[in-house]
Structures are given as structure tokens and as C-alpha cells.
Design brief:
With 746 residues, the protein is mainly α. The chain is 61% helix and 5% strand. Strand 5 and strand 6 form a beta hairpin.
Length: 746
């Protein structure tokens, strides 16, 4: 299973590094189609929009249709101006030179046309001037029925234009061929007037045409604001600047409807990726393979040598796989920056599930490396994840309540923000000032902390805070799937007011007191040799809960009353004593105790021989063959150091009560005797208990027992006679409930 998980971790990491490339290879981007993954740049990308979008920009400008506004009131304005001209020419009272000069100045102010005094005299002295002007007005009115525009430059290369009429929300498309310019209107007016009034003298008709042409006004004007808005939209859609993408930056967000620009951007990215792909894949694969292999060596050669038990390979590798899946899902399904990834969940989960800081440190460093490869192999991203993860390792232990997980999350959030400032801030100007011993002003600091840096800090802070809630969501699932208990779950069972402990106190008060003393001894030993003291104390509290089924059959609950074992056959007595382990397992499972605690209940006696009843049976039946298996606990032997410590503390506490004068020498002899017997019996053969540990256990237990016992004087009234045991045994004294209990079927 371990090797399979290693292969899955390596393959999944490499696949996750190039998931976007695989997706684009099988589903090439198409304009107006959505993309179902967030595509991020794996390396620095310079997207030269001016070069890539040049043809598209020219095409868009060629397809751009200019907008003009039609003003019919300008036709009326032209007619009014013509009528004013006509009135000025026909109403001149005299026709002398002085009056002609005055009229010339007036016409110049009104129309901007300067005529000589001779031209004005020729016009006003023309005998049929009124008919001439009325005929010209008719021709002008017919010309003004056309769409007349002033500047033809906006029509270059265009086939049509849009005309917006007053008081109308819509627009009308007009072919350019149907339009006339003001210059052409002048030409048409000149041509038609000369054709119609060919008999009029040239010295009269020419100045009149000059004046009349000045009254013509264009009725179609270029809409400057609307055309500027449309041209800006084309410029925004096809910009000419160069965009710089850093590793991990979003190119296209999840489920975005692709534009033509997006397609070109992805095409440029794929071209760049294709050049580096074959060079990058071998060293990515080698890095992942080497680091996973080194991690396995770290667990087996480094951690296992100094650990209390075998490293949980399956759990840690599965947790790394889960972390990779969560982080990659965050990358491909959200458009947020890389800094928001809750990487802190990995070390928090390792520590919350009681696997220690050393294990969490190694797992965090490997996870940081693998996570940095997912979003572009950069040293900054690697350090960003590593710093936040190591901060979580330092402060995640010692938490007792689930909500306290927010404290390490807050620290990770602050470390993330500081890391982003250090890695992405513009420090060169400030360092230059410091080297030259020059003062640093506020403006320089503002340039260092730009808006993009502030935004990234906010995302990094949010990513650190998000780790805590994600851990709280995953912990119950991991506890159920791995049949384990987190420190938060175990901490609930430290409370002596729980119903099961109250029931133990009421039904078996002597056993309850025994459990409290064992808990004190076990925790002292656990602290001395570095075992899980929390699990030890809880295991000690509940290790004898099976005695509640028949409390009077255990000496600590008899309180100087008759011993029911005095009338039982030895095998019956042994069976009753042994069954407290099975009863304890059943009660623990039905009460929802964590599996780690139930395992301690099963293992705290291992497969020990119940020597007292075995010796009695051997003496009573000297000619019969007595099987030791009938007097052994079902086991299993201690599978962990915690189970071994509990076995020793349980035996030492029980034996210490039989000492008449518990001096330190007697206590040490008793502890060593118990340890040697367990070692000879092979009870510690399946757990990692070293000789150095045994020496510490002896010293710690003797110190703890010596502190518990102190010299006393025995008062006369405390003296009692020892009652001799009865000789008759009552066979089959166990209750029917014991024989029917399903624990016997184990």
C-alpha cells in the first residue's frame, strides 16, 4: 500500500503540473466558447499585444462604421441666411459707391465673403436681380435635400455610415455613395445656376454665386464623442501595450467566455510552453521522484530511529495526496492569486492528528516543494509556502479546543503577508538610499508599497486564515476514515465529568481511584521518555472500565468484605478477571471512545499470564495438566509505547499497594521485578521500547511512587486479623450475562 501511494503521489504531482497544458491540447481554445479551467502561466510571459493583435486591430478599424448626426434645422438656417442676403441686395435705397461700400462690409460680416465695390454695384444695378435670386434659392433648396457633410476625411475606406436623427434612439445606415460633400454642393449649385441663367452677365453672376455658396451649410455632422467612444472600444479590445505575466498569474479565468484576444493570448502561451516543455518535464519528474524518495527515507531512517513508534506512512502519503488535490482544485477552479491557497492546513492536520512536530516539519517541506511546482517552479513561491507551513508547525501543538486552530491560522496569515512584502516589494530605491546614508521619505515608501502589493498581501492573509476552517472541515472526515482521534477529540475525554467516568466512580470507586493513580504514573513516564501524554492519561482513565460489569470481583472494590474468588474455581476466577478487558472494549466502542483509547484498553494487559490463579490451580491439581492459555489475557501485546507504559504503570500501581513499608529501595526492586517479568514474557516485543527508555521508566516510577507514599504510624485500632481463605470453591459462579456477552466470542 505504501508503494502504491508513493506512485500515486508522484504521478498526481507531475500530472497536476501540466493539467492546463493537457486540457488545452485536447480542447484548443475557440472564441465565444467557455474554458472550464483557470489557465495560469507557468513561467514569465511577455504578451506583445501590438504585434499579436495588429492584424485584428486593422481589421476592426476597417469594419468600424463612423457615426454622423443629421440636423434638418441647418436647411432652414441656410434658407434664412439666403433670404437675409436677398433682402440686403434688393433693399439698397441708393446705388452709389458709398452705399455699395457699406453693403460690402455688411455682407462680409454676415457671410464672410469680401466683394469689391464694383461687384456690389454690378449686382444691385442688375435689372432682374429678384428673379435671379429666387431662381438660385430654388436650386439651393433642391441641393439641400441631400445629406451634405463638411469633412470627407472620415469617409476614407468606408462604404457606409450610421446616421442618427434627432429625437430618435436608433440609427440609419446610409451608403457613402449617396452622400455629397459641401464642396460638391457648391459645385452642383454653380453648375446648375450657370446652366439656367446663362444669359446673365459674368460680372453679375460670379459675385452672386460667391455670396449664395456662402449660405450653404452641411446638415450632416461627424459625431465626435460617439466615434471617439467606439474607437476607444476598439483600442481597448485590441491594445498595443505589452503585458507581463509572472508564474502563477491568471491568463484566463474558469468558465470565462473566450474573446479573440484570449484565444491569441493562449496561443502565445502555448507556443512558449512548447519550447520549454521537453526541457522542463525531465527535471520536474526527477525533483518530485527524488523528494518523495527522500521523504520515505526521512520517515524510515531518521524519524523511525528517534520516534516512539513506526511512522504512519499510509496516513502521511494520503494526506499529501489530499493536499495536492485541494491546492490544485483551488488553482484551476478559482481566479484568485496563488497566495490565497490554504497550504497551512497540511502541518496543522499532521499535528492535530498526533503525529508530532518532527513529522510535521518534514511533511511540510515536501508539501511546500510539491505545491510550488503546481503553479510555476519559482523560489519565491516555495519559500512562501515553506515559511507559512513552518510557522504553523511551531504553534499548532498544545491546542485543546477546535476554535483555537484560528491562532496558528492568524500567525500563518501574518507570515504570508510579511513574506509577500519581502518577496514582491520594490526595495531597490530604498536600499540605494540606505547604502548612501540618505533619508527615506514618504513618497519613496509609497512607491514601494504599490496597490498590487497591498492586494497580494490581502490575498496572502486570507489564505492563511482560510487554513484553520479548512482543517476543521477535514478533521472529522479524516478521523472517521482513518479511525483515529485528533487532539481536539481526545481532549474531550480528559474531562472527568463525562457520564462514563461518573458511572465508573459510582459502580467501582476503588477502580476509579486506581485509574487516577495509574494516570498520574503513566503521564510522568510519558513526559520522561517523550510519549503522547494526552493519550496516556485518557487511556489510563478508561483502561479498567470493563470492571464496572462485576466490580466486586476486583480487590480494590471489596473494601474488607468477603472475596468472592475464595469460593470460585481458579479457572472461573481467571475468566472473570480476564473478561474485564473484553467488557472494557465493548463499553468503549458503544460509548464512542476513540479507537486509540480502545486499543489501549485491549493491550494494557497484553498476553500476560495470571500467575496468582495459575499457581493456585497448579497446587490444587498437581496431577492434572494445567494449560497456561486458560490463564492468559487475550491480548494483543502492546503495539505502541503508550500501551507498554500503561501496562507497566497499571502493574506497578497494583503491586505498590501490597508493600508493607514502601521504601525507595523496595519500590525500585518492585518496579525492576515487574519490568523484567514483562520483558522475559515477551510483552514488549511488538513496540519500540528501548533499554534507555526502560532505565528512565524505572527512575520516573520510583520517584513518582516515593512522592505518593510517605511514612505513617499505624494506630492500634488500625490493626486487624487476616481472615484465612475458605477451602471450598463454587464452580460456575459467573453470571449468565457474562457467558452470553458477545465479548466472549472475540
Amino acid at each position: 500500500m505504501k508503494w502504491l501511494l508513493n506512485i500515486i503521489l508522484i504521478g498526481l504531482t507531475i500530472l497536476s503540473c501540466y493539467l492546463e497544458d493537457i486540457y488545452l491540447a485536447f480542447r484548443p481554445p475557440v472564441a465565444d466558447k467557455p474554458v472550464y479551467l483557470t489557465i495560469r502561466s507557468r513561467r514569465s510571459l511577455h504578451f506583445d499585444q501590438a504585434k499579436v493583435l495588429e492584424s485584428n486591430r486593422e481589421k476592426a478599424l476597417a469594419q468600424y462604421v463612423p457615426v454622423f448626426r443629421y440636423f434638418p434645422q441647418r436647411i432652414d438656417a441656410s434658407k434664412r441666411q439666403f433670404q437675409q442676403l436677398m433682402q440686403a441686395l434688393t433693399s439698397l435705397p441708393g446705388k452709389n459707391r458709398r452705399q455699395a461700400e457699406t453693403l460690402g462690409r455688411k455682407l462680409q460680416e454676415m457671410l464672410g465673403v469680401k466683394l469689391s465695390t464694383t461687384d456690389i454695384i454690378n449686382i444691385v444695378r442688375y435689372h432682374d436681380l429678384t428673379n435671379l435670386l429666387e431662381g438660385i434659392l430654388t436650386i439651393e433648396e433642391s441641393i439641400l435635400q441631400n445629406k451634405v457633410l463638411d469633412d470627407p476625411r472620415h469617409l476614407m475606406g468606408k462604404q457606409t455610415i450610421e446616421i442618427q436623427r434627432p429625437n430618435s434612439a436608433g440609427s440609419v445606415t446610409q451608403p457613402v455613395a449617396e452622400l455629397i460633400t459641401l464642396e460638391k454642393a457648391h459645385f452642383l449649385l454653380d453648375e446648375k445656376v450657370r446652366q439656367l441663367f446663362w444669359q446673365v452677365r459674368k460680372n453679375v453672376l460670379d459675385p452672386v454665386l460667391r455670396l449664395v455658396q456662402a449660405t450653404l451649410q452641411p446638415n450632416l455632422l461627424y459625431d465626435q464623442n460617439e466615434n471617439k467612444r467606439r474607437l476607444n472600444r476598439v483600442a481597448l479590445e485590441y491594445p498595443s501595450s505589452t503585458i507581463f505575466y509572472q508564474p502563477g498569474d491568471v491568463l484566463v479565468a474558469f468558465r470565462k467566455q473566450l474573446t479573440e484576444k484570449d484565444v491569441l493570448l493562449l496561443a502565445a502561451y502555448r507556443r512558449q510552453e512548447a519550447k520549454a516543455l521537453y526541457h522542463e518535464i525531465p527535471w520536474i519528474a526527477f525533483t518530485v521522484l527524488f523528494m518523495v524518495l527522500f521523504y520515505n527515507l526521512f520517515l524510515s531512517r531518521i524519524l523511525a530511529d528517534g520516534s516512539r513508534q513506526q511512522p504512519p506512512y499510509t496516513f502521511l502519503l494520503s494526506l499529501l495526496i489530499t493536499t495536492i488535490v485541494i491546492l490544485k482544485a483551488g488553482l484551476v477552479l478559482t481566479p484568485f492569486p496563488v497566495y490565497i491557497l490554504p497550504f497551512g492546513l497540511l502541518p496543522m492536520l499532521v499535528i492535530a492528528l498526533n503525529h508530532g512536530k518532527i513529522t510535521a516539519t518534514g511533511t511540510t517541506l515536501l508539501g511546500a516543494l510539491l505545491a510550488s511546482l503546481l503553479c510555476g517552479p519559482t523560489f519565491q513561491i516555495l519559500l512562501f509556502f515553506a515559511f507559512g507551513g513552518l510557522a504553523a508547525v511551531l504553534v499548532s501543538s498544545g491546542l485543546h479546543r477546535r476554535l483555537q486552530i484560528m491562532w496558528p491560522s492568524l500567525l500563518v496569515a501574518m507570515i504570508n503577508a510579511v513574506s509577500i512584502v519581502i518577496f514582491t516589494g520594490h526595495w531597490q530605491p530604498i536600499l540605494a538610499k540606505l547604502i548612501r546614508l540618505q533619508p527615506i521619505n514618504i513618497d519613496l515608501l509609497q512607491k514601494t508599497v504599490d496597490p498590487a502589493l497591498t492586494t497580494n498581501m490581502a490575498w496572502g492573509f486570507a489564505g492563511g486564515l482560510a487554513a484553520g476552517p479548512v482543517v476543521l472541515l477535514l478533521l472529522p472526515l479524516l478521523e472517521i476514515s482513518w479511525q483515529t482521534a485528533s487532539t481536539f477529540k481526545l481532549n474531550r475525554y480528559m474531562d472527568l465529568n463525562r457520564p462514563l467516568m461518573k458511572e465508573l466512580l459510582s459502580k467501582a470507586p476503588g477502580t476509579y481511584q486506581h485509574c487516577m493513580t495509574v494516570a498520574y504514573l503513566a503521564q510522568s513516564v510519558g513526559e520522561a521518555i517523550g510519549a503522547n501524554t494526552q493519550l496516556l492519561r485518557i487511556g489510563a482513565y478508561y483502561h479498567d472500565i470493563g470492571k464496572m460489569m462485576n466490580p466486586k470481583f476486583f480487590i480494590e472494590n471489596q473494601f474488607n468484605t468477603e472475596n468472592p474468588h475464595d469460593v470460585l474455581e481458579p479457572r472461573e476466577s481467571a475468566k472473570l478477571i480476564i473478561n474485564h478487558v473484553r467488557h472494557g472494549m465493548r463499553i468503549g466502542q458503544e460509548s464512542g471512545l476513540p479507537k486509540a483509547v480502545v486499543d489501549l484498553i485491549l493491550q494494557h494487559h497484553g498476553t500476560q499470564l495470571m500467575e496468582y490463579f495459575y499457581d493456585i490451580a497448579a497446587r490444587v491439581y498437581p496431577k492434572s495438566k494445567i494449560h497456561k492459555e486458560d490463564f492468559r489475557y487475550p491480548g494483543p501485546k502492546p503495539q505502541s509505547v503508550e500501551a507498554a507504559i500503561l501496562m507497566i504503570a497499571d502493574s506497578v500501581e497494583a503491586a505498590s499497594r501490597s508493600l508493607e513499608e514502601p521504601t525507595r529501595k523496595k519500590l525500585e526492586q518492585m518496579v525492576r521485578h515487574i519490568l523484567v517479568k514483562r520483558i522475559v514474557d515477551g510483552q514488549f516485543g511488538e513496540c519500540d521500547l528501548t533499554s534507555r527508555d526502560l532505565a528512565k521508566i524505572v527512575q520516573t516510577l520510583v520517584d513518582a511512587l516515593e512522592a505518593s507514599f510517605h511514612s505513617r504510624i499505624r494506630y492500634p485500632w488500625q490493626e486487624k486479623k487476616i481472615r484465612p481463605p475458605k477451602k471450598g470453591w463454587k464452580i460456575g459462579a459467573s453470571t449468565e450475562r457474562d457467558s452470553e456477552d458477545r465479548a466472549f466470542r472475540l
